[in-house]
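The records we work with from here on pair a chain with its fold. A complete example follows; check for yourself that the lines match position by position.
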Amino acid sequence: MMLIYDLDLSSLEALLKDWDEPAYRAKQIWQGLYQHLYSSSEQFSNLPNSLRNKLAEQFIFTPFSVKTYLDSSDQSTRKTLFQLPDGNLIEAVLMRYGDPADEHDQTSGRGAKQRRTLCISTQAGCAMGCVFCATGQIGFKRNLSSGEIVAQVMYYAQMLKEQGETVSNVVFMGMGEPFHNYENVMASIDRLNDADGYKFGARRLTISTVGLVPQIRRFADEQRQVNIAISLHAADDDERLAIMPVNKRYKIDDVIKACKYYIEKTHRRVTFEWALINGVNDTPEVAQKLAARLKGLLCHVNAIPLNPTQGYHGEATSRQRAQIFKETLEQAGIPCTIRMRRGIDINAGCGQLAGAASQ
């Protein structure tokens, strides 16, 4: 049986034609999946029973089971651990921002409108080996199909719909390196962005990469409206190599040049992600070195205190050190935001729940 979310609209239309069904049936199924958020063939009440039965026989609508989920104590974050049919585990996280109970949204530095952000996975495990990342500590298992990526969004979209809410942002920052699974990630984006389906705006999507230079350039050439975030975490090659093995292949200068190319091609801003590790990369001296690297770039630094993991001894920076880091960057002309950590009490950093469950 095939996962129905693995089909794009043209493939669905071709299949319905092979089944001798009217052409408009494909659009009905497509809209049922992505506009009405149906999760089983029985919900397609506008289709004849014979076609509903055929869909049930031929397709899987849910490619995973929920192994467990955890809600943070403040109810702002839910982390779900999914088990795939082959036994692999992946995670997705729902983060709620801007609720009336939130006096201050640290992401923007001001009161913010209500947002429902999903952090989804693109691989089971990860081959990049970043030492501070729980997913990197698991190692690479396999790529997710485009449909398995889409299905994570649909799972939470269906949940939020029942609560009278909708997904506002999706970040490809869960388990895996999105650009290591480039084709399937872009296919999932096309499916989510489709004007006849889910109609999720490209500018509400963000891809995070450790800095795979050829893929950054390819992404630039495609000139998508999707946001890009580069996980940098160090301003010196030796220091970055110590925590991110990818730096052996793609040095910081190579990554920065690729980002310049991206900006020239798209005129879009690049975000640099920075996990603030106490005494490692959170000093004013490091901030000054980073500012020199980024000078003249259309960019923004998103800094967040490190999410602790069992496999890495580093600790999160303090609020005071984070503020000094931010001020040092801003004085040098580099915009910086200190993001709030979400779901620390439920190990919401990517890979933490899967790693614990697989031990």
Remarks:
- The domain at 65-358 is CATH 3.20.20.70 (TIM Barrel).
- The two ends are 30 Å apart (CA to CA).
